[in-house]
Amino acid sequence: MKTAGVRRATDLLFSPAAPPATGSLIALAGLRLLAGLIWLYNVVWKLPPDFGQRSNSGLYHFTHLAIEHPVFPPFSWAVEHLVLPNFTAFGWAVLFAESALAVLLLTGTAVRLAALIGIGQSVAIGLSVAESPGEWPWAYAMLLGIHVVLLFVASNQYAAIDAVRAATTASALRSKAQRLLAGWATVLLLIGLIAGWRGLAGSWPAYVGIRPLEFSLGEYNLRGALVLVAIALAMLAAAKLDQRIAAFAAAALAALAAVSIYVQVGEPSVWLGGTNTTAVIFVCAAVVSLAAGVKIGRVERA
């Protein structure tokens, strides 16, 4: 018995046979979520309204590196003559693209579209900074490679809105929608509780993540943490009670929270204590609640 188990483990590691399909799909979903977390962290320093132009910091600094340390001269020319003269519009476009990437990848929505956007964004970032001092060019090759993989494989079969949309029976649709709502509700509830605990034990706004590892799930003051907990509880109620009105209420509250942050981001005080990363978390909550709520509402009851 023990020998057979060792043999199976050895075959899995060293033989060319494919691993179990379920394990592969879960691993690919993990890769998708990892890519989403990368973009989630990186939106935090794209700060409107000038995106670092006046202080030569942030997005403006990294964009200007394409001119100071060119990787591909025609690209550097385009940055100097087309991007920098219209930098504010460019900054908003970058913030929108990277926020959309985080939302689409983390929620598993239109994953192949997200992969295409990620490929374009990875190429643009690599051509901007790959030759700059302190940068590691292979990091951008890996970022590009991740999105190429996501374009061609099924990374949206688990923890994904795409999987809910692809359900072929009413029972499967209901089950997948409820699991997605409950899963996200659990994550959001944990974020809200951690933010509350850290804020009460230290200071507000509370950072949820690990700064040295550049891992962030947002910053929240007490109001922001309470709003996030309320959204999570509404999503959990929608999942457990099969009530789409609760899902729609969660979506509306999350959308309002995200809008309030975007309106105030870059100002000294934000009403919910959030950043661009915080806003993306609320957008994810809104997208999942709305998408799952609509599907629950379409299920015909016996």
Automatic annotation (TrEMBL):
Top-level taxon in the UniProt lineage: Bacteria
Signal sequence annotation: none
Residue intervals passing through the bilayer: 21-41, 136-159, 180-200, 220-238, 245-265, 271-294
Protein's UniProt name: DoxX family membrane protein
Keywords of the record: Membrane, Transmembrane, Transmembrane helix
